[in-house]
Amino acid sequence: MSIQDVRSRVEGDRVLILERTFGAPRDLAFKMFKEPEHLKHWWGPVGWELPYCEIDFRPGGTWNYCMKCMDRNQGEYYGMESCGKAIYKDIIEPEMIAYTDYLADTDGNINEELPASEIVVEFIDLGDETKLVNRVEYASAEALNTVIDMGMLEGIAQTWDRLEERLANVKQGS
Question: Which terminus of the chain has a smaller tally of CB atoms within 10 A, N or C?
């Protein structure tokens, strides 16, 4: 898989919409987003692990996580941590998750200097497959351009490749 497998488009100048179809039923795809034991296997780009992941999966609950680059081949990124905090706004299982996503420190303190994003993830039932539609809204066009320039599209493509692999392994009982 590659970035070509993720359909992306910008709506207006502040909203990025990403879509991809996964080879798993909707209930299973949704489960990957709500349980730390699954997220730890796929969240983040290739070479990154998720050593910390704590979820209170309910509206008003939080998801605190820290990714760490474990791939020495990634040069200056090796050993780097990237942490986030999400605050769930709405959850309709297994159809949709809406949350505000912030960059944070390792203690879950929100970095107010960096832009937050409003995210809605839809899980569209296609029988044995699930279409994932991820809508990300930023406060400004500059904030959206900043994350795109940081390589976010490539990171999402790699993350979703890892999600596809995790779904296959869970379906096979691994």
Answer: C
Q: At what angle do helices 152-171 and 141-149 cross, to 10 degrees?
A: 70
| H-type alpha helices, the chain | 26-34, 36-42, 141-149, 152-171
Query: Would the CA dihedral through 138, 87, 109, 149 be positive or negative?
Result: negative
Stated as kind and residue range, the H or E segment containing 94 is none
Query: Does residue 115 contact residue 146 with C-beta atoms inside 8 Å?
Result: yes
The 3-state DSSP class for residue 26 equals helix
Separation of first and last alpha carbons in the chain: 21
Residue with tokens 């359909």: 7
**pLDDT tens by residue, 111-141:** 888 778 999 999 999 999 999 999 999 999 9
- Distance between CA 136 and CA 124 in Å, rounded? 17
Number of other residues whose CB lies within 10 A of the CB of residue 32 = 21
Distances from the Cα of 102 to the Cαs of 2, 71, 132, 138, 140, in angstroms?
Answer: 26, 25, 21, 11, 15
d(CA 11, CA 21): 20
Among 172, 159, 170, smallest CA distance to 27 is for: 170
